[in-house]
Design a protein that fits this description.
There is one protein chain. The chain contains 5 helices and 4 strands; from the N terminus they run H-H-E-E-H-H-E-H-E. By secondary structure, the protein is of the alpha+beta class. The chain folds into 2 domains: about 50 residues, no CATH class; about 100 residues, no CATH class. A hairpin with a 4-residue loop joins strand 1 and strand 2. It starts with a helix and ends in a 16-residue tail after the last strand.
Length: about 180
């Protein structure tokens, strides 16, 4: 009786390993039908569907976020949004930066607007904020030895000005006596 649960565990482990292999090969399970969509969901949730493309020889790039804060005198301070707090925090910032690649133009603008609003909150002296996304392409060591250099290209920017404060309407009137 004890061997039955062990067999099920082996079957589940083998199925998971198969999904890892299919994910690494870039097989699109969701196109197979309802069961494929279910397996694709499992692959996304467990990490089994990852393509592991960092093992390939193609260009590897990373999106990097920069925010320029400009004060009333025109002084510019550039902030890179790496946190340095933890590896997980760095991954979250990299994920936010990567969203600029996949998002619709309107969503990119909303994401940039959200980042700018946060910077206006952190820097009340700011009059203008520029959100810049750059794409940094890493080169393999063999390519570097043959003279190829990493490159950075500007991918997206958006400029935001601090809203002017509204003049409050005065209530009441002055009466002379």
């Amino acid at each position: 009786m004890r061997s039955t649960p062990r067999r099920w565990l082996l079957v589940l482990a083998a199925a998971h390993l198969l999904l890892v292999t299919l994910g690494a090969a870039g097989v699109e399970l969701r196109e197979v039908g309802p069961i494929g969509r279910l397996l694709d969901h499992y692959g996304l949730a467990s990490g089994a569907g990852c393509e592991y493309d960092f093992f390939t020889s193609r260009d590897h790039g990373q999106f990097v976020l920069h925010v320029d804060v400009i004060d009333a005198e025109g002084r510019r301070t550039t902030h890179s949004l790496g946190t340095g707090a933890s590896h997980e925090a760095e991954l979250r910032v990299a994920h936010i930066a990567g969203e600029f690649e996949t998002a619709e133009p309107a969503l990119r603008r909303e994401l940039a607007k959200s980042l700018a609003a946060k910077m206006f909150e952190r820097h009340p002296e700011a009059r203008e904020v520029v959100v810049r996304v750059e794409y940094f392409v890493v080169v393999l060591m063999d390519e570097h030895r043959s003279g190829r250099e990493p490159r950075v290209s500007r991918f997206y920017d958006a400029r935001f000005r601090k809203p002017r404060p509204r003049l409050e309407a005065r209530h009441g009137s002055a009466h002379s006596g």
